[in-house]
């Protein structure tokens, strides 16, 4: 089978400082190539080039435009090039225009088109005057693949899509990359000057939507009780690939946060491993929660807001849920875990097994079946 992956032209596909969509594309493409498929990934970059990423061919497309025009430029150039490849499947990621663009820019191809997505309000959704066009564009895909049951339900409601037109295919985790590593944890803690403190960790965008401020408030409340808690946060302010301050830099300083900034993926496993507990405090629009799975793969108990796709990615035996938006309830869940070492150990033991449900190998196999059905 010949498979093409085309994702949003926001970051280069080999960007290594975060980006769940880019990681999903790389991980799926790698496993599909290992299984014997020819796999080509298109990447929006400053200049055209072709390179190998393991067994995957990456074709960089030079894009000069910005915003919606950049997406149009990227789709046009990628699909025009894809005509020479004649793929069996064109797998779009978060590009609702994909199937319609394939019909316009790559007419004559007999490729099936599928769409993975982890946010359902494409291009501002109902606020976009072209909302009816996007609804018709979604109907052009052979398969629609929301990344969680929550995303599935919300998409069906928002776009009036029959639920049977969609199939949940979760995001995943690389068990080769993310696994318990006490030695790496010790090195990372020592590098940060951490010793016997109780370390709470967060990885992701640092912003209000992700509830970063709630976590800071909860940890400060615990320190006010005399508890030796240190909060470590890793990730960009606001958006991956963009510099700037959204006001959270000063907030982190006020709450005595150890801020690592965007972290290279090679370093990321040691960040998870050094934590006693991992927290994902998202307020809204959390479709899956990839970081929560990666932390569990490293054997870490997790505390997540009871929102979106997060209840689907942790089990009752691997973590706790708190009321979304409630920093006091989050502090209470952390307090419970701090005071109950046996509970933390039970959660830690169960976390790895729960994460195995989302191994990229399993997800790639499910996706192959989707392709076959299409």
Summarize the structure.
This protein has helices spanning 20-34, 67-82, 98-105, 131-138, 149-159, 182-191, 212-224, 248-254, 268-273, 290-297, 310-313, 327-339, 341-356, 360-373; strands spanning 2-6, 38-45, 49-53, 56-62, 89-93, 112-117, 143-146, 198-203, 229-234, 258-261, 277-280, 302-305, 319-322.
Give structural notes:
The protein is of the alpha/beta class and 374 residues long. The protein is 40% helix and 18% strand. The protein contains 14 helices and 13 strands. A hairpin with a 2-residue loop joins strand 3 (49-53) and strand 4. Helix 7 (212-224) crosses helix 12 (327-339) and helix 10 crosses helix 13 (341-356).
List the helices and strands and how they pair.
Elements: E1 2-6, H1 20-34, E2 38-45, E3 49-53, E4 56-62, H2 67-82, E5 89-93, H3 98-105, E6 112-117, H4 131-138, E7 143-146, H5 149-159, H6 182-191, E8 198-203, H7 212-224, E9 229-234, H8 248-254, E10 258-261, H9 268-273, E11 277-280, H10 290-297, E12 302-305, H11 310-313, E13 319-322, H12 327-339, H13 341-356, H14 360-373
Parallel strand pairs: 1-2, 1-5, 2-4, 5-6, 6-7, 8-9, 8-11, 9-10, 11-12, 12-13
Antiparallel strand pairs: 3-4
